[in-house]
């Protein structure tokens, strides 16, 4: 029996997926989580064989939750996403994620993927893999990415400067450069765009 943790902040979707997967003879859902924090806590508590995590879960994303779970447990991670960002795929694979699937995947197909992952194989959706091979490189510098990463927390320029040990004017310069390169009107839009692309 393959023991599963299902984590998604959309209650209806999570419940439906858990119910459908539970119909499979060799799968059992041992826990359901509505946030990345709950996913980590329940993984520690139930020690599932596989955690199926929504990539876009608050308060941190499913990839970071998966990294924390993998640091402590032998649980394998499958990420499910509505927006397939190739840079996120590369980050996920380097973090040891074993499956990367779109939310359009049917439950019966997901069950097959879960079995493959449980057997030690890896699964990446072919469309996501193809886009990963043709994606343009990130135009932002490491410092610009660092500033945008902190911007996503809602921090002010002064708070960003304090956190990454730069002068506020320097932070403004990096933000301005990033906004210009990405063609976005605000620093928050630039940070969101960078996150959507999987750069931060």
Summarize the structure.
This protein is 54% helix and 15% strand. It is of the alpha/beta class and 200 residues long. The radius of gyration is 18 Å and the shape is elongated.
Could you explain how this protein is built, in words?
It is a single chain. The protein is an alpha/beta fold and 200 residues long. The protein folds into two domains: 2-133, Response regulator (Rossmann fold, 3-Layer(aba) Sandwich), CATH 3.40.50; 142-197, Winged helix-like DNA-binding domain superfamily/Winged helix DNA-binding domain (Arc Repressor Mutant, subunit A, Orthogonal Bundle), CATH 1.10.10.10. It contains ten helices and six strands. A six-stranded parallel beta sheet has the order 2-1-3-4-5-6, sandwiched between helices. Strand 1 (2-7), helix 1 (11-22) and strand 2 form a beta-alpha-beta unit. The longest helix has 15 residues, at 168-182. The chain is elongated and about 60 Å long. The two termini are 36 Å apart. The mean pLDDT is 91.
